[in-house]
Amino acid sequence: MAEIRTIGVVGLGAMGAGIAQLAVEAGYDVVGREVSAELGERAAATIGRFLSRKVEKGQLGEADRDAAVARLALTTDLEALAACDIVIEAIVEELEPKRRLFADLDRICRPDAVLATNTSALSVTEIAAATARPQRVVGMHFFNPAPLMPLVEVVRAELSAAEAADAAALVGERMGKRVVRCHDTPGFVVNRVLIPLLNDCVRVLDEARVTPEALDTAMENGAGWPMGPCTLVDLVGIDVHVHAAEALYEKLREPRMAPPPRLVAMKNAGLLGRKSGRGFYRYD
Ligand code: CAA
């Protein structure tokens, strides 16, 4: 396929904004799509702030920042993605909305465009099956926070062509990421291991009768984690973690995969972590 120059990013929440930031920094033209102009502008402002912080720290030149910011075009119109060489989807972590979006992208995008999903635990194969081009659909799984975490998992679904995975891997590498390729299994590599581990951490809170602060201190200082599990789940989003755990449990049926009731209750109460201002901790 032709060289990738223009990347579409659908959904400019924490993950999508981070992916769009990586893409403009890597020199790609980016079309970022949100459902409202206000949400799009909020994401663009966040990206601008992080790039300016890099300028302050001497990690990026001012002219490079301005050029990167200028490479981001915002839209609320899905049709604006027609010109993209690859589209990376980062919307809500639920199968049906993703399948509907991929069916629309399949209609809108050029037949040779690659369609990538940033899903953490859903089946890439089931998402690809909503299109008439499953050979051009892959997983491109970034980790939170996307601009800082070095890994991207490039996931080959049942019918993905090797060239589509190669194109996604090349984009990941040009963004400065370490790319690990894998096949479409529940949770891929990292979340297959991390989600049950984080679920266990939450269960230990009640079993060992420790506070979130104590658990975080224990895991940071006893296991060398860069941030404790409660801080991490708050960062990822309680809702995102619960959805991912449910998806894994549905496929693998291992009790450790099921989201602990405490997390489900937090999600239902709107305690979603950092993004809602309160999870295990409060964020003002
Ligand atoms: N762009 C540019 N810079 C950014 C940024 C962004 N989007 N976001 C933050 N930064 C900057 C911060 O501003 C900060 O700089 P200043 O303090 O100078 O302003 C700098 O990055 C580093 O911030 P920290 O001091 O907080 O950095 P740290 O050394 O503590 O590391 C971390 C932060 C990389 C997040 C580290 O704590 C870590 O590795 N945590 C674990 C994260 C993890 O496990 N993520 C995976 C989650 S699971 C997942 O994502 C899977 C899934 O599918 C759900």
Describe this structure in words.
- It is a single chain.
- With 284 residues, the protein is an alpha/beta fold.
- It has two domains: 6-183, 3-Layer(aba) Sandwich (Rossmann fold), CATH 3.40.50; 191-275, Orthogonal Bundle (N-(1-d-carboxylethyl)-l-norvaline Dehydrogenase, domain 2).
- It has eleven helices and eight strands.
- It has helices spanning 14-25, 37-56, 62-70, 95-108, 124-128, 162-174, 190-207, 212-222, 229-236, 238-252, 261-268; strands at 6-10, 29-33, 72-75, 86-89, 114-117, 137-142, 151-156, 178-183.
- An eight-stranded mixed beta sheet has the order 3-2-1-4-5-6-7-8, with helices on both faces.
- The longest helix has 20 residues, at 37-56.
- The chain is globular and about 55 Å long.
- Bound molecules: acetoacetyl-coenzyme A.
- The site of acetoacetyl-coenzyme A has 21 residues, from helix 1, helix 2, helix 7, helix 9 and helix 10.
Short description, anyone?
The protein has an 8-stranded mixed beta sheet, with helices on both faces.
Number of helical segments with 4 or more residues = 11
Based on Cα principal axes, name the global outline.
globular
- The total tally of domains equals 2
The chain-level mean pLDDT equals: 97
Radius of gyration: 19 Å
Number of strands: 8
The level 1 CATH classification of the largest domain is: Alpha Beta
Q: What structural category arises from helix and sheet content?
A: alpha/beta
Strand order of the largest sheet: 3-2-1-4-5-6-7-8
End-to-end CA span: 47 Å
Low-confidence stretches: none
Helix content: 40-55%
CATH third-level topology of the largest domain: Rossmann fold
- What would you give as the CATH superfamily of the largest domain? NAD(P)-binding Rossmann-like Domain
Give helix and strand order, one letter per element, not per position: EHEHHEEHEHEEHEHHHHH
Strand content: 5-15%
GO molecular function, one term: NAD+ binding
Domain 3-hydroxyacyl-CoA dehydrogenase C-terminal: 187-283
InterPro entries: 3-OHacyl-CoA_DH, 3-OHacyl-CoA_DH_NAD-bd, 3HC_DH_C, 6-PGluconate_DH-like_C_sf, 6PGD_dom2, NAD(P)-bd_dom_sf
Site (Important for catalytic activity): 141
